[in-house]
Input
Amino acid sequence: MSKRIYYRGPGAVVTDELFILRGTPLKSYAVRDLRNVGVMRSSSAPASPTAVLMVAAGTVAAVGAGWTLLEPPTAYAIGLLAVLVPLICAVPSMLRRGGRGWELHAIYRGSDVVLYASFEEREFNQVKRALRRAIENARPPERGLDLAVA
Output
């Protein structure tokens, strides 16, 4: 069988025989052994409340320690920063809408695997389409189609 390449990109290579996931470690799957290939949406992780609280507590502690040493306008500015820094860190990650990614799942030799995952929809669809073509072309031909009827 020839080594036909359906897709070659930074994250994966799809040939007529193998699906290769580039990364550390390099993973490869035989196309003929993939079953029940499907697409799932992955969810993004929200901002960690612990990290936000730690940043807020550290900022408030620093402002509290320096409050008596500073003039009122400077102290007010630093107090404002103590409130804004945690908000600036937390709010964008909590409001992020486009953080969901796409995943290709399959059963490979009896075990569930994630073949490929990406946040870029265009790249994901290219890999998905290439894998679909590789699977369709890896199927054995249907019997009886090459027989002539007299």
